[in-house]
């Protein structure tokens, strides 16, 4: 009779080992699936970018151009443009952000595209009248190599003069990563 109890004991131990193995496999597979999902939210790679800050002759403010030179194509709806400017007139630093892109109103960002300090010129034709051709990628669906983001910092809200600095960060919102950072001096 002692032999029969040992046989039942070994069957139960095998069943328990199999159950532990199945539970462990399920936990590891769920962890692997969660890891794979977070890898999909990686930021695009912008291999090179270029920037220019052109002070205006006869006008306050200035035009900022950020060029996507090389790297991944980025959906404009997935980016925000954060701007910090050292304002000469009052000696303060102001921070504004272009959001909810691409701009839907006309050919440039409007008040519903601006958060923080309103540094941006929203008037129609403000760029074309002063030498820039358009707002580039701010009104398109994709920001591709060769594309340019153009906006004008309005004079009066933040007076900028030669030697003043503007820092522009293009943020990929799904990953919260800065994909372009340019510090520009007039």
UniProtKB/TrEMBL annotation:
<feature type="domain" description="Archaeal Type IV pilin N-terminal">
    <location>
        <begin position="6"/>
        <end position="84"/>
    </location>
</feature>
<feature type="region of interest" description="Disordered">
    <location>
        <begin position="88"/>
        <end position="132"/>
    </location>
</feature>
<dbReference type="Pfam" id="PF07790">
    <property type="entry name" value="Pilin_N"/>
</dbReference>
<dbReference type="InterPro" id="IPR013373">
    <property type="entry name" value="Flagellin/pilin_N_arc"/>
</dbReference>
<protein>
    <recommendedName>
        <fullName>Archaeal Type IV pilin N-terminal domain-containing protein</fullName>
    </recommendedName>
</protein>
<dbReference type="InterPro" id="IPR012859">
    <property type="entry name" value="Pilin_N_archaeal"/>
</dbReference>
């Amino acid at each position: 009779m002692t032999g029969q109890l040992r046989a039942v004991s070994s069957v139960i131990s095998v069943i328990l080992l199999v159950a532990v193995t199945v539970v462990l496999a399920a936990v590891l597979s769920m962890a692997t699936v969660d890891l794979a999902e977070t890898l999909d939210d990686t930021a695009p790679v912008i291999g090179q970018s270029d920037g220019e800050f052109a002070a205006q002759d006869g006008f306050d403010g200035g035009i900022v151009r950020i060029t996507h030179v090389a790297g991944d194509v980025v959906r404009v709806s997935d980016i925000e443009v954060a701007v910090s400017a050292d304002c000469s007139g009052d000696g303060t630093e102001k921070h504004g952000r272009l959001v909810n892109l691409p701009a839907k109103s006309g050919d440039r960002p409007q008040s519903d595209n601006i958060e923080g300090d309103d540094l941006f010129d929203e008037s129609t034709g403000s760029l074309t009248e002063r030498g820039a051709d358009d707002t580039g990628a701010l009104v398109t669906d994709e920001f591709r190599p060769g594309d340019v983001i153009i906006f004008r910092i309005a004079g009066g809200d933040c007076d900028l003069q030669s030697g003043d600095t503007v820092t522009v960060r293009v943020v990929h919102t799904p990953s919260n990563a800065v994909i372009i950072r340019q510090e520009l001096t007039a």
